[in-house]
């Protein structure tokens, strides 16, 4: 188990693209949700897969904290489990942008049903960690239920 | 992924006890359920643990078939995930009783909130496989939603 601590922002413009250090294609879906618990299956670059259980999120200073349990699983299992999903398969390209101090902005450019949405997340070690906010960030949406990964998978 | 094919019965009396070839203590809970999909965490003999995703059950001849994905996980993860459960922790001792032809009756003697309930399950390779039914079996409850593992965890 790890405790995931993160902040999330809308992204405005393309200035981040010149700083990209890596990218991967992500397809993910939610298998089930038990109120505050979610179970997600994710395929990365079509070649690896993970099963992730997340517990209840809670506001923790400016960030959101959430227990997270993640296991590598066979891609074939992930693809079969996606057929058992709730809601849609979410597709995005995740671009990695160095954030300084060893941290990374993950800029998610959604495709398919969520085309046009671009979100940036940063994972922190401590909820109160200072973060330099680049100009290309838009409004902060940490804790906004509309931008939660599960909401994006379930909303019409 | 495996396809789990099983039949389930109530158990009457103790005649099976003289044939027990093994036993293990099981504690399990459900993390989430997405309609037909369930996610279960199980600790066996306090020393190993599994995370199991099951898809929709469907009647298949006299048996019930269901896609199942199971992964070994650290016991510490399982115990932490149990805190995120829906419903209760189900506790039982599972006794193994040889069924012939390489198969095994799993006789589950529940304790705690379900004290008094005893169920026997057999896993089959084919839905139409012939099964010799020992005298100590009571009524068949294959497919009876009241005796599903998730129902037993969720019902008051």
TrEMBL record, chains A, B:
Residues 2-154 form the CYTH domain. CDD domains: CYTH-like_CthTTM-like_1 (cd07891). SUPFAM superfamilies: CYTH-like phosphatases. InterPro entries: CYTH-like_dom_sf, CYTH_domain, NeuTTM/CthTTM-like. PROSITE patterns: CYTH (PS51707). This is CYTH domain-containing protein. It comes from Novosphingobium album. The lineage of its organism: Bacteria, Pseudomonadati, Pseudomonadota, Alphaproteobacteria, Sphingomonadales.
